[in-house]
Structures are given as C-alpha cells and as structure tokens.
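Deliverable D2.4 — example input (structure tokens):
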C-alpha cells in the first residue's frame, strides 16, 4: 500500500500542476492581453495558412485606420456583421472619400469577394499564439472549467484530508487543528 500511496501522491501533484499550468496559460493568452490593450481572437479556419493556422490565437492591436498598409494582417467584421475574419490587406481603395481594404487569405487563390470598409476593422494582428486557441476553447467548456478549477480544489482537499488522517492518535489531530486556528487568529490580528 505504501508505494501505491506514494504513486497516487505524485499523480495528484502532477494533475494539480497540469491544471494550474493550463489555467495560467488561459489567463496569459486571454486576460493579460486585454490588460495590455489587445483583443484575443481564435482562428477557426485555415484561410491564413501557413502564416496563421486553425486553432491559433491572435492578439489584435487597435490602430488608426490610416496606418494600415498593404501586407498587414487585419481582423474585421464581415458584411452583415455575423462574424470576424482575419486576412491580409492586398490593396487599399478610396471610393468617394471612404477607405476600403481588399483582403485575401494567404491560403486562398483569389481575394475576398467584398471590400472591407476601414471602419469595420478591429485592428492589426500583432502576435500569433500557436495552438492557444484550442486551450481557450477548452477552457470555455464545462469540462475545461472542471479540469482547471474543480480538479485542483478536489486534489487539494484530498491532500488535506490525507494529511489529517495520517497523523497517529487523536492528540496529533487536535494539535494540528490548534496550530491552524492559531495561524488564522494571528493573520486576522495582523490585519
């Protein structure tokens, strides 16, 4: 039983570390960019391959529309506003005083059929985070939340219970609880 208990402890710590690492990566790829002025978007098609692959996350930086140049990769709202597209600017056109971008996916043979009004752009792709989109999508599911939040809490609870039960005799259990109470009291007084 002792080697089995040791293996279970190691496995528990590994799962806990993996869960915390995943949660940290989701924070770093999703929340942190927002604090730095970027929008995070997940690429769901292969139209920009090999530059940007399906499942990559892109960090979009808002820029003045007149600073966008041919060759920039931009993210923009689609005609009708039912989604977003990330494609490369292949031409800039001025039609009756309004700027439009002709865009094309790197993997596509022809440019997009509709011109994109400059006002429809969210910004320019500043960085690409390979495969981070898969993790972001997973984190949004019930299983993802369970893995990143519920599992670490469950493992920590099990480790605490195991620690309490592994002490011999009721006196050690009482001593442990008294020490915890003293620490809690001391931290409350320090505030």
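Example output (designed residues):
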């Amino acid at each position: 039983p002792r080697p089995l208990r040791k293996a279970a402890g190691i496995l528990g710590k590994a799962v806990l570390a993996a869960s915390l690492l995943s949660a940290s990566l989701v924070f770093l790829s999703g929340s942190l960019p927002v604090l730095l002025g970027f929008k995070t978007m997940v690429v769901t098609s292969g139209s920009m391959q090999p530059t940007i692959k399906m499942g990559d996350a892109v960090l979009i930086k808002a820029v003045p529309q007149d600073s966008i140049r041919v060759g920039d990769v931009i993210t923009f709202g689609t005609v009708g506003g039912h989604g977003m597209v990330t494609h490369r600017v292949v031409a800039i056109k001025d039609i009756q005083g309004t700027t439009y971008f002709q865009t094309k996916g790197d993997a596509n043979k022809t440019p997009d059929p509709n011109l994109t009004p400059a006002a429809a752009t969210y910004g320019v792709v500043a960085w690409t985070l390979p495969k981070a989109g898969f993790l972001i999508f997973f984190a949004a599911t019930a299983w993802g939340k369970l893995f990143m939040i519920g599992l670490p809490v469950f493992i920590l609870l099990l480790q605490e219970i195991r620690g309490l039960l592994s002490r011999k005799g009721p006196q050690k259990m009482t001593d442990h609880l008294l020490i915890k109470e003293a620490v809690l009291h001391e931290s409350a007084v320090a505030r």
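Strands lie at 38-42, 57-61, 73-77, 84-95, 98-104, 116-117, 121-129.
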